[in-house]
Amino acid sequence: MSEETGLDRIDFAILRLLTKDAWLSNKQIAAEVGLAPSSCHERIKSLRARGVLLGAHAEVNLQVIGFALQAVLFVQLGKLSIEVVDDFVSATAAVPEVRGVFLVSGRTDLIVDVAVRDMQHLKTVISEHFNRHAVVLRVETSVVFNRQQQHGMPLP
Amino acid sequence: MSEETGLDRIDFAILRLLTKDAWLSNKQIAAEVGLAPSSCHERIKSLRARGVLLGAHAEVNLQVIGFALQAVLFVQLGKLSIEVVDDFVSATAAVPEVRGVFLVSGRTDLIVDVAVRDMQHLKTVISEHFNRHAVVLRVETSVVFNRQQQHGMPLP
DNA sequence: TCATATTTTCGAAAACTATTCGATTGACGA
DNA sequence: TCGTCAATCGAATAGTTTTCGAAAATATGA
């Protein structure tokens, strides 16, 4: 068991499997990692209880439900307190079209990943949720041509 | 049933529940959407078969496994063919530390979201996978201070 | 409008899986 | 070496998923 994390080789194997496919059965995982189903079940329960496994989310094909356009917004904010900025980040994340928000260092403050139906919809989202907001100084928009997301573990 | 998507109100309810928590049982979902378990099961099977539901991924606490630092890389590429660029996007997505890659329009070509252990690790990743690569003209790095991800449906 | 075809839903049975629990094993420090 | 503790196991139970034929609802066409 690694002293760093409190997780051993088998825990990592379980995490790797579940990040690849959260719908694997406990029985299948147990077989893959070489444990009895009851032991594997105990480990997964423990990983959840310790806050290592945070949950699982199904992935839907956004094209199919009519969200054909993706964009990235580079948002510049005014000089604000940390509290105001963090609140704006949370408010932004709560917008249904927003898939992700990053508060970053550098020339831009916020990077916002949005999924929309079309250009008209994109215009509406930017106008309603960013340009209208007093804390926002400037929004630069980039269209996403290609995108790849990695859901697995960041270990080779 | 919506003619646009081939999905009705109940399908959307199922998708909303599963994107929030992919570990909900079929029985629970059936109860929430007001169907018999067998009918609900049939719908979920169909959503998978039609490519609407693409899969599910467990979410792990990256801090706990030692990935304490997140960064966004803004990568500028040379004038290249679409094929070469798409290949580079795929190669980038395959790097374990890379969580997501966006090929975008505008002043930067690639936005890369990475999770690393520390600054030393970040330096290594940028050096090994970007600066070393001939197609990369320039990499600008931003540290991620705060991040929120939305896994649910982009509908109110 | 009515009859027919098709799809969807349902409940019950069967098959399978998760979950619990006491006993056993194995690791570790005294 | 011994005792303690945590992890593992197998078997029993409880619960869920999956299948399937029949019924209901919905769509189709004359």
Entry keywords:
alpha+beta, four-stranded antiparallel β-sheet, Alpha-Beta Plaits, 5 strands, homodimer, 156 residues, 37% helix, DNA-binding
Describe, in short, the structure shown:
The structure is a homodimer of 156-residue chains. Chain A is α+β, with helices and mostly antiparallel strands and 156 residues long.
Distance between the termini of chain A: 18 Å
* Number of separate domains of chain A: 2
CATH architecture of the largest domain in chain A: 2-Layer Sandwich
* Tally of DSSP β-strands of chain A: 5
Structural class category of chain A = alpha+beta
Q: Regions of chain A with pLDDT < 50 over 5+ consecutive residues?
A: none
Largest interface: A-B, 66 and 66 residues
Strand content of chain A: 25-35%
Descriptive overview:
The structure is a homodimer of 156-residue chains. Chain A is α+β, with helices and mostly antiparallel strands. Chain A contains five helices and five strands, in the order αααββαββαβ. The first copy, chain A, is elongated. The relative contact order of chain A is 0.15. The interface between A and B is large, with 66 and 66 residues. The structure holds a DNA duplex (30 and 30 nucleotides). Chains A, B: Residues 7-68 form the HTH asnC-type domain. Chains A, B: It comes from Dyella choica. Chains A, B: This is Lrp/AsnC family transcriptional regulator.
Topology summary:
Two copies of one chain form a homodimer.
Chain A: H1 9-20, H2 26-33, H3 37-49, E1 53-60, E2 69-77, H4 82-93, E3 98-104, E4 110-116, H5 119-131, E5 136-149
Helix pairs in contact in A: 1-2, 2-3
Chain A binds a DNA duplex (30 and 30 nucleotides) through helix 3.
